[in-house]
Amino acid sequence: MANSIDGNVLAAKSLAKFGVQHMFGVVGIPVTSLATRSVSLGIRFIAFHNEQSAGYAASAYGYLTGRPGVLLTVSGPGCVHGLAGLSNSAANTWPMVMISGSCDQSDAGRGDFQELDQIQAVKPFSKFSVKATKITEIPNCVAQVLNWALLGRPGGCYLDLPTDVLHQKVSLSEAENLITEAAEKVFNNGNQLNQIRIRDNGLVSEAASLLKNAAKPLIVIGKGAAYARAEAALKKLVETTGIPFLPTPMGKGVLPDTHDLAATAARSLAIGSCDVALVVGARLNWLLHFGEPPKWSKDVKFILVDISEEEIELRKPHLGLVGYAKTIVETLNKEIKDDPFCLARNHPWVEAIWKKSKDNVAKMEAQLAKDVVPFNFLTPMRIIRDAILGVGSPAPVVVSEGANTMDVGRAVLVQTEPRTRLDAGTWGTMGVGLGYCIAAAVACPDRLVVAVEGDSGFGFSAIEVETLVRYQLPVVVIVFNNGGVYGGDRRTSEEMNGPYKDDPAPTSFVPKAGYHALIEAFGGKGYLVGTPDELKYALSESFSARKPAVINVIVDPYAGSESGRLQHKN
């Protein structure tokens, strides 16, 4: 059929027609042609070494752009590896679509090459999964997964493309009709993202009244608010009412960390003493101590803003507002405009937050001011903070991963613009670093990307520095090299027994490993640093070049400590 196309081309055409601009993945049988055809139709394909990193990239891309990140994998093991990204999207509620090839349908159940019931395998992590059982179903299936990824609470979806379906053919005219019909059927009727309405405007009035009559109100800003592009509405709310705000780790930057009403440095006081907390785009999970005593007051009244009614029902707040965060905050602003109030700078609550923040910042700055060599975590983190701030606007996207490195970075690094911090997130996922870097570089081409990684976190995906070099992405990876997980061998004499007592400790890596040499092997720039001046030079040169680089920062292996849950002492 001279004027016919196969399933690979039809899938690529459908993705392009429905707005996909980037794909991430690892190619092979049976999806290589799908990737190359997608590129020929204007979709940029970023080829990775490992589906896990590609999946993490797709998940972060969904968060940064508000459009589903698309991951392409081969069948069987490739699909299983891709589950890392799909599950990460599910946990963080980011829109993503995983597309995997699968075995020929006629050979299913017979032990075919890389055979797996992939629909069943993805079930725990997918909002919506579908298999195209014949070529004519492809456009509708593509439209459905892209649409479902965005509907209501965002999340991951899965599309299964069997080998035989990819090899089937249809005429070009029929293909165009199928794509048009799918667009009309799915996107014109099914996409409710921008049509979400607040269920009961009376609840918004009640929320405004609760905030107005509170003695110690607090606004908690989560990454869901960043995803919803609610920064302008939240800025207006905070500055109109004078209510202090507390960002979650990835909510940092929705309003600048430097804002006078930021309560980040007074977190314990803020959550422990507030009597009404408006929580926008954050869940009352472990990151917020489940909203329970002793971290929170037993009498606090939560106003939860969430796109998911199920989330509201689960948390049972004093008041729940179901809808799109930006829309709800804008409506709340209109309500307050009709009955305005504002906490003055000398209001006891505002003053208490401000004083505690100032005191804690002063204590931290006193520690940061010291140049400690061999490096602890604070000295290089201060130098990195200052270098990042020196870039100005648009601010770099900071990717933070590790144990001590991420914990210290969360306290020291300053976010001034929304969606400029990516970290281990809701699931505390290690291994996301290089995938997130690549996603940020692709999604935000006007921004430098700076990764601040522990050596353990870096190791999960270190080979992807070749991907940075291959695509010449403006990413600078800073590795805090303290010789292991938490910092080398911490065993006591009592723990060093048994026939393998002379093996390296489970927490230790090769001391002072040459991580910078890895990127040099592929033609990138590597730096080995151990003093403040060496680090400042490496940051200045690499930031100016905006080329792939790895800065290997040698840190005292005894400077860190075991870390897991958020530890806040302020």
Automatic annotation (TrEMBL):
Residues 204-332 form the Thiamine pyrophosphate enzyme central domain. Residues 402-553 form the Thiamine pyrophosphate enzyme TPP-binding domain. One of its GO terms (molecular function) is thiamine pyrophosphate binding. Keywords: Lyase, Magnesium, Metal-binding, Thiamine pyrophosphate. InterPro entries: DHS-like_NAD/FAD-binding_dom, HACL1-like, THDP-binding, Thiamin_PyroP_enz_cen_dom, Thiamin_PyroP_enz_TPP-bd_dom, TPP-bd_CS, TPP_enzyme_TPP-bd. It holds the Pfam family TPP_enzyme_M. Gene3D superfamilies: 3.40.50.970, TPP-binding domain. GO terms for biological process: fatty acid alpha-oxidation. GO terms for cellular component: peroxisome. Its EC number is 4.1.2.63. It catalyses: a 2-hydroxy-3-methyl fatty acyl-CoA = a 2-methyl-branched fatty aldehyde + formyl-CoA; an (R)-2-hydroxy-long-chain-fatty acyl-CoA = a long-chain fatty aldehyde + formyl-CoA. Its cofactor is Mg(2+); thiamine diphosphate. Catalyzes a carbon-carbon cleavage reaction; cleaves a 2-hydroxy-3-methylacyl-CoA into formyl-CoA and a 2-methyl-branched fatty aldehyde. Belongs to the TPP enzyme family. Homotetramer. This is 2-hydroxyacyl-CoA lyase.
